[in-house]
Write a structure and sequence with these properties.
The chain is of the alpha+beta class and 387 residues long. Helices cover 29% and strands 34% of the residues.
């Protein structure tokens, strides 16, 4: 009997514990459902901000490639040997600086010969002109015939023509002599030097360049933009210079420049258009061939409604924002987002001055009651402009 009574007591205790556990789980499920419906649970802590109205510049970002404004391979124009190299590799040079001197002894001799011939022509012409003056005096005195006077005049004319020919030969000799002095066509930086004193150089496009000069300052960045941005870019260019910012991907400070070139055709394969921006590069932060991130604002959205970017929620069919009403309850407001940046978003469908939920939206359902809480930075943004 005692054993049967202990079994009955155990069964009763087990039933009591099972009923208690069932009621505990049922109460918790009821509380969770009430919280989802905004019912008996307390208000949900959220961070809110006021939607603001302002003009928003549409910032475009693109990956670009740094390119030199101009670069040239210098080659010899005559077959000769290098007499002297006046530069070092990687040296900054100015326009007109002497870079290489070639063996010019033959050209120097030709120039001297041409100059001497000009001096002889001038002496002969002077003698002929003095003889012509005497012939004219004799002709006036009827001592010589017209034919003799014409002969003297013809000699002067012939020597004048010969002087002109030989003067042109001097200029040609000077040009040939100048080919032996290779100078910088513009200011830039030298690359690797492929010759040394005594090296034989030859003309021709297939010949190895003596050196390459690349202009570093100013410098350009080439990038592409979607074709839909072309009308805004053209309007901005018509209004004045368009500023751009370039940040080297290798690190360093950002540089501010301006758009200098928009291509005359859209790439049909990619739907983009090529653009170039020019930058002052006195400290050589941009280098030809490196990559850079370009940012520009080609157009502006006037009078736009702006909210913090994290206030915009994405649903299965559309985007929406939780709006806080005067009664402290939230409502789901469907919006469209024509433009978004890292910190704010331009939305349509919400009036400026509306209080929107920025943080804590994951715990909300339409109709839930909310209370203001501090953001993770320790302060509550009052407007979207603070975001």
């Amino acid at each position: 009997m005692k054993r049967r009574g202990s079994w009955i007591a155990g069964i009763v205790i087990a039933l009591v514990l099972a009923v208690g556990a069932w009621r505990l789980f049922a109460d918790r499920a009821h509380d969770a459902q009430a919280a989802r419906k905004g019912g008996g649970a307390g208000p949900v802590s959220v961070v809110t901000a006021l939607a603001a109205k302002r003009d928003v510049p549409v910032r475009l970002k693109a990956n670009g490639t740094v390119t030199a404004v101009q670069s040239v391979d210098l080659r010899a124009q005559v077959t000769s040997t290098v007499r002297e190299v006046h530069i070092r590799e990687g040296q900054d040079v100015k326009q007109g600086d002497l870079l290489f001197s070639l063996d010019s002894r033959t050209e120097d001799a030709h120039l001297k010969k041409a100059l001497a011939q000009v001096e002889k022509d001038r002496a002969d012409l002077g003698t002929a002109q003095r003889d012509l003056e005497r012939q004219r005096d004799l002709f006036k005195q009827k001592f010589i015939s017209q034919a003799a006077l014409d002969t003297a005049q013809n000699k002067v004319d012939t020597l004048s023509g010969q002087l002109a020919i030989d003067s042109a030969a001097v200029e040609a000799a000077r040009v040939a002599r100048a080919y032996n002095e290779i100078r910088a066509p513009f200011a830039g930086r030298t690359g690797a030097i492929s010759v040394r004193p005594g090296s034989l150089v030859q003309p021709g496009a297939t010949a190895v360049p003596l050196v390459t000069i690349t202009q570093i300052d100013p410098i350009t960045v080439s990038f592409t933009l979607p074709e839909r941005e072309l009308p805004g870019l053209q309007a901005a260019l018509a209004a004045g210079p368009v500023q751009v910012t370039a940040a080297p991907n290798a690190g360093g400070e950002s540089l501010v420049g301006r758009i200098v070139f928009v291509d005359n055709a859209v790439d049909t394969a990619t739907g983009t258009i090529r653009v170039k921006a020019e930058f002052r590069n006195g400290r050589a932060q941009l280098w030809p061939g490196m990559y850079a991130t370009v940012t520009l604002a080609a157009r502006t959205l006037p009078g736009s409604t702006v909210v913090p970017a994290q206030a915009v929620q994405t649903g299965p069919e559309n985007r929406f924002i939780y709006v806080v009403g005067s009664d402290g309850k939230v409502a789901q407001q469907i919006v469209t987002v024509p433009y978004i940046e890292e910190r704010f978003a331009v939305v349509a469908g919400v009036a400026p001055g509306t209080r929107v939920v920025v943080e804590g939206a994951q715990n909300l359902r339409p109709g839930a009651r909310v209370k203001e809480a501090q953001s993770g930075q320790g302060q509550t943004p009052r407007t979207a402009a603070d975001a």
